[in-house]
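Bug #77: duplicate submission created two jobs. Keeping one. Sequence:
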Amino acid sequence: MKYRIILSGSGGDRSFDIEMGDEDTVLDALETLRGSQAPDLSYRHSCHHGSCGTCGAMINGRPALMCLTKLAGLGSVEIRLEPLAKMERISDIAVWPGPLFANLPDTSYIRENPGLDPGPALTARRLEDCIECGICAAACPVDGDFQGPAALGALRREAEKSPRRLSELLGIAARRDGVGACEGAFECSRTCPQRLAPGRSIRELKTLIAERNDQ
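Kept job's structure:
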């Protein structure tokens, strides 16, 4: 089937017509374009199996992993690709995920990942199940200072694993940019490719904070 891929880049929109199969993904389409019509196309990816989290993008206005999004399932032959919302654009739809990593708490269930060079502003760490794709942050409707669903989900998980740190962790979650800033839209849970339900974790943190304040 013929698709029109519209790329929202820093220099304006670019559109390409491309013939792709029913089982092809958005990432397949971009790799085909870069090998033929757009050799200078910039986007981030490291895999084709939805476990690395680097190929997140806004696809027809919704955040998703390009490697898991089939063209035929989008319901339109015209597909608009934009950088993930709330992320700093590098070029075309490639983004710098630094703020997402910077907000992740320093907890015992993340590990050093020396294979990455994230720069001086953060350290390269990975959660047990979170693939740090930024989909939850892009889907979140909160506009302003907010630690974000991934960071607060990490706090909740650490509270389960290290109950002796509960007071410290709840103090972080209770900050102005913590659970109180969450609007309870649960878009983070709906869009998480790992089905981690960060919205539920935020709700549980709110309950724990309320119980602590009542004591």
